[in-house]
Amino acid sequence: MSDSEWIPAPEKPVLVIGAASVDLVGRLRDDLHEGTSNPANIRSAFGGVARNVAENLARLGHAVRLLSVVGADSTGDAILQQAASAGIDVDAVLRSSEHPTGAYLAVVDADGKLRFALDDMRALAQLSPEYIRQQEALFEQSSLLFVDANLPKDTLRTVMSLARRAHLPVCADPTSRVLAERLRPYLKRLLMITPNSAEAAVLCGLSLSEKPRQALQAARCLVSQGVQIALVTLAEFGVSYATSSTSGHIPAMRTQIVDPTGAGDALTAVVIFALLNDIPIDDAVRLGVTAASLTLRQRSTVVPDLSLEMLYDQLV
Q1: Chain centroid offset of residue 88 CA
Q2: Distance between CA atoms of 28 and 96, rounded to whole angstroms?
Q3: What proportion of the chain, given as a percentage, has pLDDT over 70?
Q4: How far lies 117's CA from each of 12, 177, 205, 234, in Å?
Q5: Which of 70, 100, 108, 285 has a 20 to 30 A CA-CA distance from 77?
Q6: Per-residue CA distances from 211 to 228, 232, 263, 308 (Å)
Q7: What is the number of alpha carbons within 13 Å of residue 180 lying toward its C-beta?
Q8: 14: Cβ contacts below 8 Å, ≥ 6 apart
Q9: Hey, which CATH number is domain 13-313, 3.60.10.10, 3.40.1190.20, 3.30.465.10, 3.90.180.10?
Q10: pLDDT mean over 20-27
Q11: What is the residue extent of each domain of the chain?
Q12: Helix (H, G, I), strand (E, B), or coil: what is residue 31?
């Protein structure tokens, strides 16, 4: 999809498809010692890449519809209730009696850097190609599609097919190094992709460190493969980005990292919001990096009072 084919339609909702889960994050108080209990501060919050993106968009005042799966359990009830109260349309979210609501378990060190993580997204297996096809009207009614790579491969294929039929631009998050490969067949069809350096390395076949220059190389590599906008996130080092006509690096706001969970999703959502509102890409990325930096300060995955005014007030 070329730039000339897509005219932003901010009055239409964004369709968000992917994971909705509960996050459990433990922040170590000292060094990690294997094989024993480690003192930590532990918090729980609603998460999932797609759900996080949807909530950030809703907080900014944009209409958004979530297509996901949660369990037929109290956690699923709570996720749907909170999402609806945030302004997300959850009418198309499936309830699974076979699998529990998705969960993400992470350990971050005393500096706020992720050490390891586990996720249980079995419920998404019920987001079948057949169910996606039943939601074709949602594709036709939307301005843009965001998808995370937690989706089963067959489901992702159907999602991309319906998006093409509806002439819907697609933004995607690779989610993890393990799942990033699922997006490789669709790079030429993406308006935007937002990998971290490890995920970008998988998609580009490169060996990368978290250095802005190497991340910029990866962003340009993704553009050369057909992606229109590539944002390679670098945690506390900001974002390197590229399009066919511009590229650059935006450093992160200098801030104490309370919890890194959700920062990349805030970046993605804010850049999507900016693109839908015809904000130039260089300014869009600055707004996105600001949102990510603000999220790093939170014990939750989304800044609860997020607004465009807040982002401009604290623009990096």
Answers
A1: 16
A2: 34
A3: 95
A4: 35, 12, 23, 18
A5: 108
A6: 22, 10, 18, 29
A7: 18
A8: 54, 57, 62, 63, 64, 65, 142, 143, 144, 145, 146, 272, 276
A9: 3.40.1190.20
A10: 92
A11: 13-313
A12: coil
Structure tokens belonging to residue 52: 């996080």
Backbone angles phi, psi at 148, to 5 degrees: -105, 160
Give the tokens for residue 189.
Answer: 């069809």
Question: Residue 4's pLDDT is what?
Answer: 43
- What mean pLDDT do residues 36-45 have? 92
Collapsed DSSP state (helix, strand, coil) of residue 129 = helix
Burial class (CB in 10 A: 0-12, 13-18, 19+), 167: exposed
The whole-chain average pLDDT of the chain stands at: 91
Task: Compute CA distances 302 → 40, 90, 95, 136, 269, whole Å.
Answer: 22, 18, 23, 29, 11
Strand order in the sheet with 144-148: 64-67, 14-17, 144-148, 170-173, 190-193, 229-233, 239-242, 247-250
Interval 210-240: pLDDT, tens: 678 889 999 999 999 999 999 999 877 889 9
Q: What is the pLDDT of residues 117-158, one digit of tens each?
A: 999 999 999 999 999 999 999 999 999 999 999 999 999 999
Using CA atoms, how far apart are residues 43 and 45, in angstroms rounded to an integer? Answer: 7
Contacts of 106 (CB under 8 A, 6+ apart): 23, 24, 25, 26, 114, 116, 117, 118, 261
DSSP-assigned beta bridge partners for residue 95: 70
